Task: inverse folding
């Protein structure tokens, strides 16, 4: 590998043992990838130092401390290190517990205390505690071309596609090492030649609602898998929420890390430009029939119309989505046999509280929760057999993780289910 | 019975030497939500290896898919003593590169021929990841005459 003087200094230990271990890990990682050099990253999003009872027990010999977990697990170091400050802007993504409503989520007090301690530890080291899968809705919006080191597939696809910033799907260890070095391997989406589209998707049926964009994403992910789709055809410019649901779905049914929406996303002024002047390897068509099949597929995991649980906020709800929920719930009561949980970030919840939106939602018997979600926290209300969801991503994961049935529909279908305890959704 | 040995050459991902029985799949593997890190058992509902463990096996597969928690799940499998002995795969991604590194698992990719066409579950495989050489000892010829 070609290393700069600053990188060599980190590697030879002149900047301390922890930065040396972080750099060693990044060199091993870059060599595994076959990368020749590093890029400087100015935007890291990971889960540094996240403590679990398993990790605490495993590193008991080093005291089971937060520094022990960070040294041994995050940096894969056999030595216990003194953890220095982050050298580059770093934020913490979603976690396992809502600090205000952990009891509702059935969390064990010891595990919550451990998580809160690791949050304090990592905040002391300069990390912004955003605690969300949507950092771009909580004040972290990378600029075009910025080299990022992000985890969380739905955030990665948003970062590359909508913002035109550059990140691979990083992991916990690589983001923690990047936090201490400001480096990440120059590979994949950091490089121009890797960012061009490979497959074409012709949209023949108009894509309008948030649900439509989620279904299109689910279709595209299944079609192109890990490749890069270029989409063109019948759509109006989608808003942030539609991008969020589209990308999250495409990153779940497939492994899409970047997409080009012709005339909309920054690297797709035309289909030709997005494809880098090459021919698409394959062309897919999304029409009325495909749309019906995606809807049927997403609803294939449900048969009982009695709904015990409704979960919204995957990826974490934007303020507009909380306002919509409040409007639909205003003055009404969630059905006695059904629970409604809406997940968002701390930042968006604060704003929604200021507007009275959280209070309206709460008055209906629903809960507004932060930091986590049912899939990440692996938690649903006790006895849940059937859930209703407005997210194709959550519909992909939650039934498999929790062994429950799942209906998929619009936000309005889901809130209707919460109010009546019954699923009435259908494709319109 | 004569034993047949086939040699494959590839690129070192993580160095080291290991040998053991092959566990082969043509399907990519999910980490988070797809594997129990405490046992190495594959959980994914529709996976052809569902219910089987990669613990102490030479895992031969196309590559990684799914959540960015891939490396964490495989890293934890090392801590729990449930990691594979070595990995042989085709498709390079950040997930699998980081996972192989933190598992400290001898791993090789970019082969001169497709390992999925050569290696079958149950074959004895020696991985010299330092040299990028994989030796496949075919198990006794079967009635189907495959291999």
Result:
């Amino acid at each position: 590998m070609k290393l700069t003087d600053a990188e060599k200094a980190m590697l030879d230990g002149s900047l301390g043992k922890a930065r040396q271990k972080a750099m060693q890990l990044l060199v091993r990682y870059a060599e595994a990838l076959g990368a020749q050099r590093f890029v400087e990253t100015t935007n890291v999003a990971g889960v540094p130092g996240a403590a679990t009872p398993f990790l605490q027990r495993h590193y008991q010999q080093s005291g089971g401390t937060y520094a022990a977990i960070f040294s041994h697990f995050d940096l894969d170091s056999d030595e216990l290190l003194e953890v220095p400050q982050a050298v580059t802007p770093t934020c913490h993504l979603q976690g396992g517990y809502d600090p205000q409503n952990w009891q509702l989520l059935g969390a064990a007090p010891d595990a919550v205390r451990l998580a809160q301690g690791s949050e304090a530890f990592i905040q002391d080291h300069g990390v912004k505690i955003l605690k969300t899968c949507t950092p771009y809705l909580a004040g972290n919006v990378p600029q075009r071309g910025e080299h990022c080191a992000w985890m969380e597939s739905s955030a990665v696809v948003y970062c590359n596609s909508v913002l035109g910033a550059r990140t691979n799907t990083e992991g916990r260890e690589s983001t923690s090492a990047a936090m201490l070095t400001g480096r990440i391997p120059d590979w994949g989406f950091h490089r121009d030649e890797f960012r061009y589209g490979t497959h074409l998707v012709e949209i023949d049926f108009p894509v309008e609602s948030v649900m439509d964009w989620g279904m299109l994403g689910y279709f595209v992910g299944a079609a192109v898998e890990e490749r890069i789709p270029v989409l063109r055809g019948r759509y109006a410019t989608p808003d942030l929420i539609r991008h969020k649901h589209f990308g999250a779905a495409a990153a779940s049914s497939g492994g899409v890390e970047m997409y080009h929406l012709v005339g909309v996303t920054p690297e797709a002024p035309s289909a030709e430009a997005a494809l880098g002047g090459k021919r698409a390897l394959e062309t897919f068509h999304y029409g009325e029939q495909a749309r019906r099949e995606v809807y049927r597929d997403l609803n294939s995991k449900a048969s009982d119309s009695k709904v015990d649980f409704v979960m919204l906020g995957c990826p974490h709800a934007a303020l507009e989505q909380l306002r919509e929920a409040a409007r639909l719930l205003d003055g009404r009561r969630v059905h006695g046999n059904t629970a409604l949980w809406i997940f968002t970030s701390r930042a968006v919840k604060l704003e929604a509280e200021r507007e009275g939106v959280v209070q309206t939602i709460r008055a209906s018997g629903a809960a507004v929760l932060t930091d986590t979600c049912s899939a990440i926290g692996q938690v649903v209300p006790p006895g849940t057999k059937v859930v209703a969801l407005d997210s194709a991503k959550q519909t992909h994961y939650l039934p498999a993780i929790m062994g429950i049935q799942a209906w998929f529909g619009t936000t309005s279908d889901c809130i209707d289910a919460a109010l009546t305890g019954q699923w009435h959704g259908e494709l319109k | 019975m004569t034993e047949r040995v086939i040699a494959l050459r590839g690129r070192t991902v993580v160095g080291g030497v290991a040998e053991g029985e092959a566990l082969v799949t043509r399907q990519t593997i999910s980490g988070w939500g797809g594997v129990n890190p405490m046992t190495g058992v594959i959980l994914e509902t529709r996976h052809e290896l569902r219910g089987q463990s990669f613990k102490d096996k030479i895992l031969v597969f196309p590559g990684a898919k799914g959540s960015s928690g891939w490396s964490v799940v495989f890293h934890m499998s090392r801590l729990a003593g449930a990691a594979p002995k070595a990995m042989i795969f085709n498709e390079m991604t950040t997930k699998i590169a980081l996972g192989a590194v933190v598992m400290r698992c001898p791993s090789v990719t970019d082969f001169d021929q497709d390992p999925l066409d050569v290696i079958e579950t149950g074959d004895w495989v020696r991985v010299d990841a330092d040299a990028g050489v994989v030796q496949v000892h075919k198990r006794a010829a079967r009635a189907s005459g495959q291999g």
Chain A has a mean pLDDT of 97. The radius of gyration of chain A is 22 Å. The interface with chain B takes residues 25, 28-29, 32-34, 54, 58, 73, 76, 151-153, 156, 168-174, 187-188, 226, 255, 375, 397, 400-401 of chain A (CB under 8 Å). The first strand of chain A starts at residue 38 and ends at 40.
